[in-house]
Write a structure and sequence with these properties.
199 residues; alpha/beta; Nucleotidyltransferase, domain 5; five-stranded mixed β-sheet
Length: 199
């Protein structure tokens, strides 16, 4: 079972993003504050769980969290400011949505811009160590998956119901055949496919 938080004295929010490496769609981020008595044996990094487990845990998190918030930055802004800045902006917007102001922020990964005057700690692979970051990873992932599942109904040839916007062979082949959709990250797609020698 993961540790609930990084420390136990301050009100702590776990933060994570989903969709940073995708070719299409927004990047999502979530912030979660868990209650002090929170326990869950299944809760883990969203990438270690299947879709059914993630959705079951999302319901638990939304019911039991002291506070949670989910935000997104769309593909137009990602192209404008780059994916790193967009990911951190989504994290800041998720924090804006919390009904309780945290005293410490713990972020999955190694990059973050200071938020207001709140202390923060970046933790590489933190979503596999702390429940609050894992909870944020699950909310960000499931909300983004829901978005891409809905987008698939309009742009079905890209296979977003399966790849959720990541650069699978089917997705790449569809871009070559049909071109970009309005949801594609244009500069990001070109750069990614050139690096893979696919475009």
């Amino acid at each position: 079972m993961l540790k609930r938080t990084f420390q136990n004295k301050l009100i702590e929010a776990g933060i994570d993003e989903a969709g940073r490496g995708c070719l299409a769609g927004p990047v999502f981020a979530a912030a979660v504050i868990l209650p002090k008595n929170f326990k869950n044996k299944i809760l883990n990094d969203s990438k270690q769980l299947n879709e059914k487990q993630r959705m079951e845990l999302r319901a638990v998190i939304e019911k039991e969290a002291v506070a949670y918030s989910v935000a997104q930055i769309n593909e137009v802004e990602i192209d404008k400011i780059n994916i790193l800045k967009a990911s951190i902006k989504a994290m800041h917007q998720a924090l804006d949505g919390l009904q309780i102001v945290p005293q410490l922020l713990v972020i999955d990964g190694n990059r973050f811009y200071p938020y207001q005057q709140i202390k923060h700690q970046c933790i590489i692979r933190g979503d596999g160590l702390y429940m609050n970051i894992a909870a944020a990873s699950i909310l960000a992932k499931t909300y983004r998956d829901d978005f891409m599942q809905e987008a698939h109904l309009q742009y079905s040839h890209y296979g977003w119901d399966k790849n959720k916007g990541y650069g699978t062979q089917l997705h790449v082949d569809a871009i070559k055949q049909y071109g970009y959709s309005p949801l594609h990250r244009k500069t990001f797609v070109v750069k990614s496919l050139q690096q893979l020698n696919l475009f």
